[in-house]
Amino acid sequence: MGIRSRPPRRNPKAAALLELSIPAGRPRTVVTRLTAEAVAEGEDPFNESTTVFSARKREADAFYASMAERELDEEDRRIQRQALAGLIWSKQLYYFDIEQWLNGDPGIPPPPQERKSGRNHHWQHMANFDIVSMPDAWEYPWYATWDLAFHAVAFALVDAEFAKRQLALMTREWYMHPNGQLPAYEWAFEDVNPPVHAWAAWRVYRMEREVWGRSDRAFLEDVFHKLLLNFTWWVNRKDSEGRNVFEGGFLGLDNISVFDRSAELPTGGHLHQSDGTAWMAFFALSMLQIALELATHNSVYQNIATKFFEHFLRIAEAMTGGRREGPGLWDEQDRFFYDVLHIHGGNTVPLRVRSLVGLLPLIAIDVLEPETLEALPVFKRRMDWFFGNKLYLRDDGHMACAWSAGAGRRRVLSLVSRSRLDAVLGYLFDSEEFLSDYGVRSVSRFHEHNPYVYQAEGRSFEVSYQPAESESDMFGGNSNWRGPIWFPINFLLVEALETAAAYYGDGVQVPLPHPPAAGSAGPHGAPKTLDAAAAELATRLISIFRPNADGHRPVHGADARIRSHPHWKDFIPFHEYFHGDTGAGAGASHQTGWTALVAVLIQR
After folding, report:
1. Which of 337, 368, 363, 366 is closest to 350 using CA atoms?
2. CATH (domain of 424)
3. CA distance 80 to 91
4. pLDDT (tens digit, 9 = 90+) per residue, 485-544?
5. What DSSP assignment string belongs to 293-331?
6. pLDDT at residue number 361
7. Is residue 98 part of a domain?
8. Could you give the CA distance from residue 234 to residue 223 in angstroms, rounded to a whole number?
9. Which of 566, 552, 484, 483 is nearest to 518 (CA)?
Protein backbone atom coordinates (compact mmCIF):
# COMPACT_ATOMS: atom_id res chain seq x y z
CA MET A 1 0.00 0.00 0.00
CA GLY A 2 1.39 3.38 -0.93
CA ILE A 3 0.65 6.64 0.89
CA ARG A 4 0.27 9.83 -1.09
CA SER A 5 0.30 13.06 0.87
CA ARG A 6 0.99 16.74 0.42
CA PRO A 7 3.74 18.45 2.44
CA PRO A 8 2.48 18.82 6.05
CA ARG A 9 2.72 22.61 6.08
CA ARG A 10 0.48 22.96 3.03
CA ASN A 11 -2.27 20.51 3.89
CA PRO A 12 -1.92 17.75 6.51
CA LYS A 13 -4.05 15.22 4.64
CA ALA A 14 -3.20 11.80 3.27
CA ALA A 15 -4.91 9.21 1.09
CA ALA A 16 -4.24 5.50 0.94
CA LEU A 17 -3.95 3.79 -2.42
CA LEU A 18 -4.18 0.02 -2.64
CA GLU A 19 -4.20 -1.84 -5.93
CA LEU A 20 -5.57 -5.39 -5.86
CA SER A 21 -6.20 -8.08 -8.40
CA ILE A 22 -8.96 -10.38 -7.14
CA PRO A 23 -9.80 -13.54 -9.09
CA ALA A 24 -13.51 -14.18 -9.69
CA GLY A 25 -15.15 -15.98 -6.78
CA ARG A 26 -12.11 -15.64 -4.51
CA PRO A 27 -12.09 -13.53 -1.32
CA ARG A 28 -9.34 -11.13 -0.24
CA THR A 29 -9.05 -9.57 3.21
CA VAL A 30 -7.46 -6.16 3.80
CA VAL A 31 -6.52 -5.04 7.30
CA THR A 32 -5.79 -1.37 7.99
CA ARG A 33 -4.80 0.43 11.16
CA LEU A 34 -5.09 4.11 12.07
CA THR A 35 -2.59 5.26 14.67
CA ALA A 36 -1.35 8.59 15.99
CA GLU A 37 2.14 7.22 16.62
CA ALA A 38 4.80 6.09 14.17
CA VAL A 39 5.47 2.38 14.05
CA ALA A 40 8.93 1.50 15.29
CA GLU A 41 11.32 -0.07 12.80
CA GLY A 42 10.96 -3.82 12.77
CA GLU A 43 7.61 -3.77 14.58
CA ASP A 44 4.64 -5.50 12.97
CA PRO A 45 1.73 -3.03 13.21
CA PHE A 46 -0.77 -5.82 12.63
CA ASN A 47 0.48 -8.46 15.08
CA GLU A 48 -2.57 -7.98 17.32
CA SER A 49 -5.13 -7.24 14.62
CA THR A 50 -6.94 -10.59 14.94
CA THR A 51 -7.12 -10.29 18.71
CA VAL A 52 -8.34 -6.70 18.61
CA PHE A 53 -10.92 -7.40 15.91
CA SER A 54 -12.27 -10.40 17.82
CA ALA A 55 -12.53 -8.32 21.00
CA ARG A 56 -14.50 -5.61 19.19
CA LYS A 57 -16.91 -8.24 17.86
CA ARG A 58 -17.46 -9.67 21.34
CA GLU A 59 -18.10 -6.19 22.71
CA ALA A 60 -20.64 -5.48 19.96
CA ASP A 61 -22.38 -8.80 20.63
CA ALA A 62 -22.56 -8.00 24.34
CA PHE A 63 -23.85 -4.49 23.67
CA TYR A 64 -26.80 -5.59 21.54
CA ALA A 65 -27.52 -8.62 23.70
CA SER A 66 -27.80 -6.39 26.77
CA MET A 67 -30.61 -4.29 25.35
CA ALA A 68 -32.68 -7.00 23.61
CA GLU A 69 -35.56 -8.67 25.40
CA ARG A 70 -34.64 -12.18 26.54
CA GLU A 71 -37.74 -13.65 24.88
CA LEU A 72 -36.66 -12.58 21.38
CA ASP A 73 -35.79 -15.32 18.94
CA GLU A 74 -32.62 -15.21 16.88
CA GLU A 75 -34.32 -13.70 13.82
CA ASP A 76 -35.86 -10.80 15.71
CA ARG A 77 -32.53 -10.16 17.45
CA ARG A 78 -30.87 -10.03 14.04
CA ILE A 79 -33.41 -7.57 12.63
CA GLN A 80 -33.30 -5.35 15.69
CA ARG A 81 -29.51 -5.30 15.83
CA GLN A 82 -29.08 -4.39 12.17
CA ALA A 83 -31.74 -1.67 12.34
CA LEU A 84 -30.07 -0.02 15.32
CA ALA A 85 -26.56 -0.49 13.92
CA GLY A 86 -27.57 1.32 10.72
CA LEU A 87 -29.07 4.12 12.79
CA ILE A 88 -25.89 4.51 14.84
CA TRP A 89 -23.79 4.44 11.68
CA SER A 90 -25.71 7.40 10.24
CA LYS A 91 -24.62 9.89 12.90
CA GLN A 92 -22.58 12.59 11.17
CA LEU A 93 -21.19 16.07 11.66
CA TYR A 94 -23.46 18.60 9.97
CA TYR A 95 -21.84 21.95 9.24
CA PHE A 96 -23.81 24.69 7.56
CA ASP A 97 -23.41 28.39 8.37
CA ILE A 98 -26.12 30.13 6.34
CA GLU A 99 -24.69 33.65 6.67
CA GLN A 100 -21.30 32.43 5.52
CA TRP A 101 -22.88 30.49 2.65
CA LEU A 102 -24.85 33.53 1.48
CA ASN A 103 -21.92 35.96 1.67
CA GLY A 104 -19.08 33.68 0.64
CA ASP A 105 -15.62 33.26 2.13
CA PRO A 106 -13.11 36.13 2.37
CA GLY A 107 -10.33 36.17 -0.18
CA ILE A 108 -12.26 34.37 -2.94
CA PRO A 109 -14.72 35.61 -5.57
CA PRO A 110 -18.13 36.34 -4.03
CA PRO A 111 -21.08 34.02 -4.76
CA PRO A 112 -23.67 35.09 -7.35
CA GLN A 113 -25.85 37.94 -6.13
CA GLU A 114 -29.07 35.97 -6.63
CA ARG A 115 -28.03 33.56 -3.87
CA LYS A 116 -28.90 36.25 -1.31
CA SER A 117 -32.55 36.08 -2.36
CA GLY A 118 -32.60 32.36 -3.08
CA ARG A 119 -33.36 29.35 -0.95
CA ASN A 120 -32.83 29.59 2.81
CA HIS A 121 -32.00 33.31 2.71
CA HIS A 122 -34.56 33.89 5.51
CA TRP A 123 -32.58 31.57 7.80
CA GLN A 124 -29.46 33.67 8.37
CA HIS A 125 -29.54 32.90 12.09
CA MET A 126 -28.57 29.28 11.38
CA ALA A 127 -25.06 28.19 12.28
CA ASN A 128 -25.19 24.40 12.43
CA PHE A 129 -22.10 22.55 13.58
CA ASP A 130 -23.29 19.46 15.42
CA ILE A 131 -23.40 15.67 15.30
CA VAL A 132 -26.83 14.87 13.85
CA SER A 133 -28.66 11.67 12.92
CA MET A 134 -29.05 11.61 9.14
CA PRO A 135 -31.71 9.74 7.15
CA ASP A 136 -28.64 8.15 5.61
CA ALA A 137 -25.04 9.34 5.83
CA TRP A 138 -24.31 8.25 2.25
CA GLU A 139 -27.12 9.43 -0.01
CA TYR A 140 -28.82 11.84 2.42
CA PRO A 141 -26.03 13.56 4.43
CA TRP A 142 -28.38 16.18 5.84
CA TYR A 143 -30.97 16.12 8.60
CA ALA A 144 -34.72 16.13 8.09
CA THR A 145 -36.46 17.25 11.25
CA TRP A 146 -39.53 15.02 11.11
CA ASP A 147 -37.36 12.03 10.18
CA LEU A 148 -35.14 12.92 13.13
CA ALA A 149 -38.06 12.77 15.56
CA PHE A 150 -38.66 9.12 14.63
CA HIS A 151 -34.92 8.40 14.74
CA ALA A 152 -34.87 9.66 18.32
CA VAL A 153 -37.57 7.21 19.39
CA ALA A 154 -35.52 4.29 18.01
CA PHE A 155 -32.30 5.74 19.49
CA ALA A 156 -33.94 5.77 22.92
CA LEU A 157 -33.50 1.98 23.04
CA VAL A 158 -29.71 2.25 22.98
CA ASP A 159 -28.76 5.86 23.77
CA ALA A 160 -31.47 7.92 25.43
CA GLU A 161 -29.10 10.83 26.08
CA PHE A 162 -28.30 11.18 22.39
CA ALA A 163 -32.00 10.89 21.53
CA LYS A 164 -32.85 13.74 23.88
CA ARG A 165 -30.00 15.91 22.62
CA GLN A 166 -31.18 15.47 19.05
CA LEU A 167 -34.71 16.58 19.87
CA ALA A 168 -33.51 19.53 21.93
CA LEU A 169 -31.03 20.53 19.23
CA MET A 170 -33.74 21.31 16.66
CA THR A 171 -35.30 23.79 19.11
CA ARG A 172 -32.06 25.66 19.81
CA GLU A 173 -31.64 29.24 18.67
CA TRP A 174 -29.14 28.27 15.98
CA TYR A 175 -31.71 25.88 14.44
CA MET A 176 -35.28 27.04 15.20
CA HIS A 177 -36.30 30.19 13.36
CA PRO A 178 -36.92 33.25 15.58
CA ASN A 179 -40.58 33.07 14.51
CA GLY A 180 -40.90 29.56 16.00
CA GLN A 181 -40.67 27.40 12.86
CA LEU A 182 -38.54 24.28 13.00
CA PRO A 183 -36.21 23.80 10.01
CA ALA A 184 -37.30 21.15 7.54
CA TYR A 185 -34.20 20.09 5.57
CA GLU A 186 -31.24 21.63 3.80
CA TRP A 187 -32.70 22.40 0.38
CA ALA A 188 -35.68 24.30 1.85
CA PHE A 189 -35.62 24.93 5.59
CA GLU A 190 -38.91 26.82 5.28
CA ASP A 191 -40.83 23.79 4.02
CA VAL A 192 -43.40 22.49 6.48
CA ASN A 193 -43.00 19.02 7.96
CA PRO A 194 -45.56 17.32 10.23
CA PRO A 195 -45.32 18.55 13.84
CA VAL A 196 -44.17 15.30 15.48
CA HIS A 197 -41.49 16.80 17.72
CA ALA A 198 -43.65 17.03 20.84
CA TRP A 199 -44.81 13.42 20.44
CA ALA A 200 -41.19 12.27 20.04
CA ALA A 201 -40.05 14.19 23.12
CA TRP A 202 -42.89 12.72 25.21
CA ARG A 203 -42.23 9.25 23.79
CA VAL A 204 -38.46 9.37 24.47
CA TYR A 205 -39.11 10.66 27.98
CA ARG A 206 -41.41 7.71 28.71
CA MET A 207 -39.05 5.19 27.09
CA GLU A 208 -36.15 6.39 29.20
CA ARG A 209 -38.30 6.03 32.30
CA GLU A 210 -39.48 2.55 31.32
CA VAL A 211 -36.20 1.17 29.93
CA TRP A 212 -33.61 2.95 32.04
CA GLY A 213 -35.57 3.96 35.13
CA ARG A 214 -34.86 7.68 34.75
CA SER A 215 -37.31 10.61 34.44
CA ASP A 216 -35.54 13.59 32.89
CA ARG A 217 -38.08 16.32 33.58
CA ALA A 218 -35.48 19.02 32.91
CA PHE A 219 -35.26 17.83 29.29
CA LEU A 220 -39.04 17.64 29.01
CA GLU A 221 -39.56 21.11 30.43
CA ASP A 222 -36.83 22.62 28.28
CA VAL A 223 -38.16 21.26 25.00
CA PHE A 224 -41.77 21.99 26.01
CA HIS A 225 -41.10 25.73 26.32
CA LYS A 226 -39.52 25.89 22.88
CA LEU A 227 -42.34 23.86 21.33
CA LEU A 228 -44.81 26.42 22.69
CA LEU A 229 -43.26 28.79 20.16
CA ASN A 230 -43.58 26.20 17.40
CA PHE A 231 -47.24 25.52 18.23
CA THR A 232 -47.97 29.24 18.08
CA TRP A 233 -46.20 29.46 14.70
CA TRP A 234 -48.50 26.75 13.34
CA VAL A 235 -51.64 28.46 14.65
CA ASN A 236 -50.62 31.85 13.24
CA ARG A 237 -49.26 30.70 9.87
CA LYS A 238 -51.22 27.60 8.82
CA ASP A 239 -54.81 28.41 9.79
CA SER A 240 -55.61 31.01 7.15
CA GLU A 241 -59.23 31.55 8.23
CA GLY A 242 -58.78 31.23 11.98
CA ARG A 243 -61.17 28.28 12.04
CA ASN A 244 -58.83 25.70 13.58
CA VAL A 245 -58.71 23.81 10.26
CA PHE A 246 -55.15 23.72 9.01
CA GLU A 247 -53.25 23.74 5.76
CA GLY A 248 -49.50 23.20 5.83
CA GLY A 249 -48.63 22.25 2.26
CA PHE A 250 -47.20 18.90 1.28
CA LEU A 251 -46.41 17.99 4.92
CA GLY A 252 -43.79 15.41 4.01
CA LEU A 253 -46.31 13.26 2.14
CA ASP A 254 -44.98 14.52 -1.19
CA ASN A 255 -47.27 13.31 -3.99
CA ILE A 256 -50.13 11.82 -1.96
CA SER A 257 -52.47 14.62 -3.03
CA VAL A 258 -54.27 15.44 -6.25
CA PHE A 259 -52.24 18.66 -6.45
CA ASP A 260 -48.79 19.77 -5.39
CA ARG A 261 -49.84 21.14 -2.01
CA SER A 262 -46.66 23.18 -1.60
CA ALA A 263 -47.45 25.24 -4.72
CA GLU A 264 -50.26 27.57 -5.74
CA LEU A 265 -53.35 25.51 -6.50
CA PRO A 266 -54.35 25.41 -10.18
CA THR A 267 -57.94 25.99 -9.11
CA GLY A 268 -57.16 29.02 -6.99
CA GLY A 269 -58.49 29.15 -3.43
CA HIS A 270 -56.99 27.06 -0.68
CA LEU A 271 -57.04 23.55 0.72
CA HIS A 272 -58.23 22.48 4.15
CA GLN A 273 -56.08 19.46 4.87
CA SER A 274 -57.24 16.42 6.76
CA ASP A 275 -53.65 15.47 7.55
CA GLY A 276 -52.60 19.02 8.50
CA THR A 277 -55.52 19.36 10.90
CA ALA A 278 -55.01 15.85 12.32
CA TRP A 279 -51.33 16.58 12.89
CA MET A 280 -52.22 19.74 14.82
CA ALA A 281 -54.72 17.87 16.98
CA PHE A 282 -51.97 15.28 17.55
CA PHE A 283 -49.54 18.09 18.44
CA ALA A 284 -52.04 19.57 20.92
CA LEU A 285 -52.56 16.21 22.65
CA SER A 286 -48.80 15.62 22.90
CA MET A 287 -48.35 19.05 24.48
CA LEU A 288 -51.26 18.32 26.81
CA GLN A 289 -49.63 15.11 28.05
CA ILE A 290 -46.29 16.85 28.61
CA ALA A 291 -48.00 19.67 30.50
CA LEU A 292 -49.88 17.19 32.70
CA GLU A 293 -46.62 15.38 33.50
CA LEU A 294 -44.89 18.65 34.41
CA ALA A 295 -47.96 19.74 36.43
CA THR A 296 -47.57 16.75 38.75
CA HIS A 297 -44.37 18.42 39.99
CA ASN A 298 -45.25 22.08 39.41
CA SER A 299 -48.94 23.01 39.65
CA VAL A 300 -48.42 26.09 37.47
CA TYR A 301 -48.51 23.79 34.43
CA GLN A 302 -52.17 22.89 35.11
CA ASN A 303 -53.23 26.11 33.40
CA ILE A 304 -51.16 25.45 30.28
CA ALA A 305 -52.51 21.90 30.23
CA THR A 306 -56.00 23.41 30.20
CA LYS A 307 -55.00 25.56 27.23
CA PHE A 308 -54.06 22.50 25.15
CA PHE A 309 -57.14 20.57 26.30
CA GLU A 310 -59.39 23.37 25.07
CA HIS A 311 -57.38 23.94 21.91
CA PHE A 312 -57.69 20.27 20.98
CA LEU A 313 -61.47 20.49 21.42
CA ARG A 314 -61.66 23.49 19.10
CA ILE A 315 -59.61 21.73 16.44
CA ALA A 316 -61.75 18.62 16.85
CA GLU A 317 -65.08 20.41 16.55
CA ALA A 318 -63.90 22.31 13.46
CA MET A 319 -62.51 19.26 11.71
CA THR A 320 -65.36 16.91 12.46
CA GLY A 321 -68.20 19.34 11.68
CA GLY A 322 -69.34 19.43 15.27
CA ARG A 323 -70.32 23.12 15.29
CA ARG A 324 -71.86 25.65 12.95
CA GLU A 325 -68.56 27.24 11.78
CA GLY A 326 -68.37 25.01 8.70
CA PRO A 327 -68.81 21.57 7.22
CA GLY A 328 -65.62 20.01 8.58
CA LEU A 329 -63.54 17.41 6.76
CA TRP A 330 -65.69 14.34 7.48
CA ASP A 331 -67.63 13.06 4.46
CA GLU A 332 -70.88 11.45 5.56
CA GLN A 333 -71.48 9.89 2.15
CA ASP A 334 -68.25 7.84 2.18
CA ARG A 335 -67.82 7.93 5.99
CA PHE A 336 -64.19 8.97 5.65
CA PHE A 337 -62.05 12.08 6.09
CA TYR A 338 -60.89 14.00 2.98
CA ASP A 339 -58.98 17.14 2.10
CA VAL A 340 -61.50 19.83 1.13
CA LEU A 341 -60.83 22.31 -1.66
CA HIS A 342 -62.20 25.82 -1.03
CA ILE A 343 -62.64 27.68 -4.31
CA HIS A 344 -63.30 31.39 -4.68
CA GLY A 345 -66.98 32.11 -4.28
CA GLY A 346 -67.45 29.89 -1.28
CA ASN A 347 -67.68 26.56 -3.09
CA THR A 348 -66.16 23.51 -1.44
CA VAL A 349 -65.10 20.25 -3.06
CA PRO A 350 -64.05 17.15 -1.07
CA LEU A 351 -61.13 15.50 -2.85
CA ARG A 352 -62.31 11.90 -2.57
CA VAL A 353 -58.95 10.17 -2.51
CA ARG A 354 -58.80 7.34 0.02
CA SER A 355 -55.35 7.94 1.39
CA LEU A 356 -53.46 8.27 4.64
CA VAL A 357 -54.78 11.82 5.00
CA GLY A 358 -58.12 10.21 5.90
CA LEU A 359 -56.57 7.72 8.34
CA LEU A 360 -54.36 10.22 10.16
CA PRO A 361 -57.25 11.51 12.33
CA LEU A 362 -56.95 8.14 14.11
CA ILE A 363 -53.57 9.12 15.59
CA ALA A 364 -55.02 12.17 17.36
CA ILE A 365 -56.17 10.18 20.39
CA ASP A 366 -55.13 10.09 24.02
CA VAL A 367 -56.49 8.92 27.32
CA LEU A 368 -56.50 10.75 30.63
CA GLU A 369 -55.76 8.47 33.56
CA PRO A 370 -58.01 8.87 36.61
CA GLU A 371 -55.02 9.09 38.97
CA THR A 372 -53.62 12.00 36.96
CA LEU A 373 -56.92 13.88 37.04
CA GLU A 374 -57.34 13.40 40.79
CA ALA A 375 -53.82 14.73 41.38
CA LEU A 376 -54.51 17.89 39.34
CA PRO A 377 -57.67 19.53 40.74
CA VAL A 378 -57.32 22.80 38.81
CA PHE A 379 -57.19 21.02 35.48
CA LYS A 380 -59.94 18.57 36.44
CA ARG A 381 -62.25 21.37 37.57
CA ARG A 382 -61.88 23.12 34.21
CA MET A 383 -62.38 19.85 32.33
CA ASP A 384 -65.53 19.07 34.30
CA TRP A 385 -66.84 22.58 33.61
CA PHE A 386 -66.40 21.94 29.88
CA PHE A 387 -68.24 18.64 30.06
CA GLY A 388 -71.05 20.25 32.04
CA ASN A 389 -71.48 23.38 29.89
CA LYS A 390 -70.49 22.42 26.35
CA LEU A 391 -73.29 20.03 25.56
CA TYR A 392 -71.99 19.27 22.06
CA LEU A 393 -69.17 17.34 23.76
CA ARG A 394 -71.78 14.76 24.72
CA ASP A 395 -72.77 14.25 21.09
CA ASP A 396 -70.88 11.14 20.02
CA GLY A 397 -71.83 11.78 16.42
CA HIS A 398 -68.77 13.93 15.82
CA MET A 399 -65.77 13.72 18.15
CA ALA A 400 -64.91 11.36 20.99
CA CYS A 401 -64.39 13.69 23.92
CA ALA A 402 -65.74 11.39 26.57
CA TRP A 403 -67.64 13.05 29.37
CA SER A 404 -68.16 9.54 30.72
CA ALA A 405 -65.37 7.20 31.78
CA GLY A 406 -64.32 4.13 29.83
CA ALA A 407 -62.18 1.13 30.75
CA GLY A 408 -60.21 1.75 33.93
CA ARG A 409 -62.22 4.95 34.55
CA ARG A 410 -60.17 6.64 31.81
CA ARG A 411 -61.32 9.60 29.73
CA VAL A 412 -60.57 9.77 26.00
CA LEU A 413 -59.83 12.63 23.64
CA SER A 414 -60.06 11.69 19.97
CA LEU A 415 -60.90 13.18 16.58
CA VAL A 416 -62.82 10.04 15.65
CA SER A 417 -66.07 9.47 17.49
CA ARG A 418 -67.24 6.01 18.49
CA SER A 419 -69.92 6.06 15.80
CA ARG A 420 -67.33 6.88 13.11
CA LEU A 421 -64.58 4.63 14.40
CA ASP A 422 -66.06 1.47 12.93
CA ALA A 423 -66.24 3.08 9.48
CA VAL A 424 -62.62 4.29 9.47
CA LEU A 425 -61.33 0.99 10.88
CA GLY A 426 -63.38 -0.79 8.24
CA TYR A 427 -61.31 0.93 5.56
CA LEU A 428 -58.04 0.42 7.43
CA PHE A 429 -58.48 -3.34 7.96
CA ASP A 430 -59.86 -4.13 4.51
CA SER A 431 -57.30 -5.93 2.31
CA GLU A 432 -58.90 -4.42 -0.78
CA GLU A 433 -58.43 -0.96 0.70
CA PHE A 434 -55.51 -0.15 3.02
CA LEU A 435 -54.38 -3.32 4.79
CA SER A 436 -51.57 -5.24 3.14
CA ASP A 437 -49.96 -8.39 4.53
CA TYR A 438 -47.07 -6.06 5.40
CA GLY A 439 -48.74 -2.99 6.83
CA VAL A 440 -51.03 -0.12 5.91
CA ARG A 441 -50.80 1.26 2.38
CA SER A 442 -50.52 5.00 1.85
CA VAL A 443 -53.31 5.00 -0.78
CA SER A 444 -56.19 2.54 -0.91
CA ARG A 445 -55.93 -0.36 -3.33
CA PHE A 446 -59.47 0.66 -4.38
CA HIS A 447 -57.87 3.28 -6.62
CA GLU A 448 -56.00 0.65 -8.63
CA HIS A 449 -59.08 0.18 -10.80
CA ASN A 450 -60.89 3.35 -9.72
CA PRO A 451 -58.46 6.25 -10.07
CA TYR A 452 -59.62 9.59 -8.76
CA VAL A 453 -59.66 12.26 -11.47
CA TYR A 454 -60.18 15.99 -10.94
CA GLN A 455 -60.65 18.41 -13.84
CA ALA A 456 -59.34 21.96 -13.50
CA GLU A 457 -58.17 24.63 -15.94
CA GLY A 458 -58.49 22.25 -18.88
CA ARG A 459 -56.24 19.67 -17.22
CA SER A 460 -56.87 16.32 -15.59
CA PHE A 461 -55.28 15.57 -12.22
CA GLU A 462 -55.29 11.89 -11.29
CA VAL A 463 -54.44 9.77 -8.27
CA SER A 464 -54.23 6.00 -8.67
CA TYR A 465 -52.85 3.19 -6.53
CA GLN A 466 -49.11 2.78 -7.21
CA PRO A 467 -47.74 0.17 -4.79
CA ALA A 468 -44.03 0.78 -5.41
CA GLU A 469 -42.21 3.46 -7.38
CA SER A 470 -44.00 6.64 -8.36
CA GLU A 471 -45.39 7.32 -11.81
CA SER A 472 -46.03 10.94 -10.84
CA ASP A 473 -43.51 13.64 -11.70
CA MET A 474 -44.60 15.69 -8.72
CA PHE A 475 -41.55 16.62 -6.60
CA GLY A 476 -39.37 15.29 -9.40
CA GLY A 477 -40.90 11.83 -9.11
CA ASN A 478 -38.44 10.97 -6.37
CA SER A 479 -40.95 9.97 -3.75
CA ASN A 480 -44.14 7.97 -3.58
CA TRP A 481 -46.98 8.15 -1.11
CA ARG A 482 -49.51 6.72 -3.56
CA GLY A 483 -49.51 3.14 -2.36
CA PRO A 484 -46.35 1.98 -0.59
CA ILE A 485 -46.09 1.20 3.11
CA TRP A 486 -44.27 3.86 5.11
CA PHE A 487 -43.00 2.79 8.49
CA PRO A 488 -43.41 5.96 10.60
CA ILE A 489 -47.13 6.41 9.87
CA ASN A 490 -47.74 2.70 10.46
CA PHE A 491 -45.93 3.00 13.78
CA LEU A 492 -48.22 5.85 14.85
CA LEU A 493 -51.28 3.85 13.80
CA VAL A 494 -50.15 0.90 15.95
CA GLU A 495 -49.83 3.26 18.93
CA ALA A 496 -53.22 4.84 18.19
CA LEU A 497 -54.93 1.43 18.21
CA GLU A 498 -53.30 0.61 21.54
CA THR A 499 -54.42 3.93 23.00
CA ALA A 500 -57.98 3.40 21.78
CA ALA A 501 -57.93 -0.07 23.36
CA ALA A 502 -57.00 1.49 26.70
CA TYR A 503 -60.32 3.36 26.66
CA TYR A 504 -62.71 1.06 24.76
CA GLY A 505 -61.37 -2.22 26.14
CA ASP A 506 -63.11 -5.12 24.41
CA GLY A 507 -65.98 -2.87 23.34
CA VAL A 508 -64.55 -2.31 19.85
CA GLN A 509 -63.54 -5.25 17.66
CA VAL A 510 -62.40 -5.44 14.05
CA PRO A 511 -62.58 -8.43 11.67
CA LEU A 512 -59.19 -8.99 10.05
CA PRO A 513 -59.19 -10.18 6.44
CA HIS A 514 -58.07 -13.53 5.10
CA PRO A 515 -55.22 -14.38 5.01
CA PRO A 516 -53.51 -12.92 8.07
CA ALA A 517 -49.80 -12.16 8.12
CA ALA A 518 -47.44 -15.02 8.87
CA GLY A 519 -47.18 -15.64 12.57
CA SER A 520 -50.52 -14.13 13.57
CA ALA A 521 -52.81 -16.09 15.82
CA GLY A 522 -56.48 -16.97 15.69
CA PRO A 523 -58.86 -18.10 12.96
CA HIS A 524 -58.93 -16.19 9.71
CA GLY A 525 -61.38 -13.33 9.68
CA ALA A 526 -62.20 -13.62 13.39
CA PRO A 527 -62.98 -10.28 15.05
CA LYS A 528 -60.16 -9.00 17.22
CA THR A 529 -59.94 -6.42 19.96
CA LEU A 530 -58.10 -3.19 19.25
CA ASP A 531 -55.10 -4.44 21.26
CA ALA A 532 -54.97 -7.62 19.18
CA ALA A 533 -55.42 -5.62 15.96
CA ALA A 534 -52.49 -3.38 16.96
CA ALA A 535 -50.35 -6.45 17.60
CA GLU A 536 -51.41 -7.91 14.26
CA LEU A 537 -50.41 -4.75 12.43
CA ALA A 538 -47.04 -4.72 14.21
CA THR A 539 -46.53 -8.37 13.22
CA ARG A 540 -47.21 -7.55 9.59
CA LEU A 541 -44.69 -4.72 9.66
CA ILE A 542 -41.98 -6.87 11.26
CA SER A 543 -42.69 -9.66 8.76
CA ILE A 544 -41.24 -7.46 6.00
CA PHE A 545 -37.84 -8.43 7.39
CA ARG A 546 -38.47 -11.94 8.73
CA PRO A 547 -37.94 -15.03 6.52
CA ASN A 548 -41.28 -16.25 5.18
CA ALA A 549 -42.42 -19.85 4.68
CA ASP A 550 -40.05 -20.13 1.69
CA GLY A 551 -37.13 -18.85 3.75
CA HIS A 552 -37.05 -15.53 1.88
CA ARG A 553 -37.30 -12.11 3.44
CA PRO A 554 -40.02 -10.06 1.67
CA VAL A 555 -37.82 -6.95 1.86
CA HIS A 556 -35.45 -8.54 -0.70
CA GLY A 557 -38.23 -8.75 -3.28
CA ALA A 558 -37.81 -11.07 -6.25
CA ASP A 559 -34.04 -10.68 -6.60
CA ALA A 560 -32.82 -14.27 -6.16
CA ARG A 561 -29.19 -13.12 -6.10
CA ILE A 562 -29.84 -11.48 -2.75
CA ARG A 563 -32.73 -13.33 -1.14
CA SER A 564 -31.12 -16.79 -1.51
CA HIS A 565 -27.39 -16.11 -1.53
CA PRO A 566 -25.76 -17.37 1.70
CA HIS A 567 -23.56 -14.27 1.92
CA TRP A 568 -26.40 -11.76 1.44
CA LYS A 569 -29.75 -13.19 2.51
CA ASP A 570 -29.23 -12.33 6.18
CA PHE A 571 -27.99 -8.81 5.54
CA ILE A 572 -31.16 -6.75 5.89
CA PRO A 573 -31.70 -3.42 4.13
CA PHE A 574 -34.03 -0.91 5.80
CA HIS A 575 -35.65 0.87 2.91
CA GLU A 576 -37.31 4.24 2.69
CA TYR A 577 -40.69 2.56 2.00
CA PHE A 578 -42.07 -0.84 0.93
CA HIS A 579 -44.19 -2.32 -1.85
CA GLY A 580 -47.85 -2.13 -0.89
CA ASP A 581 -48.58 -5.72 -1.94
CA THR A 582 -45.33 -7.71 -1.61
CA GLY A 583 -43.43 -5.89 1.12
CA ALA A 584 -40.37 -5.56 -1.14
CA GLY A 585 -38.11 -2.64 -0.29
CA ALA A 586 -38.44 0.48 -2.46
CA GLY A 587 -36.87 3.90 -2.58
CA ALA A 588 -33.48 4.31 -0.90
CA SER A 589 -32.27 0.84 0.08
CA HIS A 590 -29.94 2.05 2.80
CA GLN A 591 -32.06 4.72 4.48
CA THR A 592 -32.31 3.12 7.91
CA GLY A 593 -33.64 6.31 9.48
CA TRP A 594 -37.24 6.04 10.52
CA THR A 595 -37.52 2.41 9.38
CA ALA A 596 -35.37 1.60 12.42
CA LEU A 597 -38.66 1.91 14.32
CA VAL A 598 -39.00 -1.81 13.61
CA ALA A 599 -36.53 -2.25 16.49
CA VAL A 600 -39.06 -0.62 18.85
CA LEU A 601 -41.90 -2.80 17.56
CA ILE A 602 -39.77 -5.89 18.17
CA GLN A 603 -38.82 -4.73 21.67
CA ARG A 604 -42.51 -4.32 22.54
Report:
1. 337
2. 1.50.10.10
3. 18
4. 999 999 999 999 999 999 999 999 998 875 555 445 444 567 899 999 999 999 999 999
5. HHHTT-TTHHHHHHHHHHHHHHHHHHHHT-STT---SEE
6. 97
7. no
8. 17
9. 552
